[in-house]
Amino acid sequence: MTQARSIWTSGLAGDERNGAYENIYQGEVILAYRLTDSIQGFGGVQRSSRKESFESSSIQNSNVGIGLSARF
Fold first, then answer.
1. What is the rounded distance in angstroms from the CA atom of residue 71 to the CA atom of residue 49?
2. What is the pLDDT of residue 26?
3. What's the order of all strands across the beta sheet hosting 2-7?
4. Which long-range contacts (C-beta less than 8 Å, at least 24 apart) are formed by 22-29?
5. pLDDT of residue 63
6. pLDDT-based confidence at 25, cuts 50/70/90?
7. What burial letters (b/e) apply to 10-44, b meaning 16+ CB within 10 Å?
8. What is the largest CA-CA distance in the chain?
9. Where are the domains of the chain?
C-alpha cells in the first residue's frame, strides 16, 4: 500500500482549495498463472481512497481486472 499527501493551493480568496491538501492511499495486487508455455492468465484488484481537506468524506475507488497473455 502506498500513501501520498498532495499539497496544492489556488491562491484565490474564497476558493475552497486555497491552502487545501489531499491524502491518498492506494494498493494493488496482481496474480498471474501460467496455463501453458505460451498462455498466461492474470487477475488483479486495485483500491484507492482519496480525502481532500475541505470535504467531509473520502472518495473510494476499486478496480478489478482479468486478462490473458499469449505468445505465438
1. 36
2. 93
3. 2-7, 21-34, 39-52, 59-70
4. 22/50, 22/51, 22/52, 22/53, 23/50, 23/51, 24/48, 24/49, 24/50, 25/1, 25/49, 26/1, 26/2, 27/1, 27/2
5. 97
6. very high
7. eeeeeeeeeebebebeeeeeeeeeeeeeeeeeeee
8. 62
9. 2-70
DSSP per residue, 31-48: EEEESSSSEEEEEEEEEE
Query: Residue 55 has what pLDDT?
Result: 82
Stronger pLDDT, 12 or 43, i.e. the higher one = 43
Round the average pLDDT of the chain to a whole number and report it. Answer: 88
Please give the C-alpha separations between residue 31 and each of 37, 56, 61, 66, 70, in angstroms, as whole numbers.
17, 35, 20, 9, 16
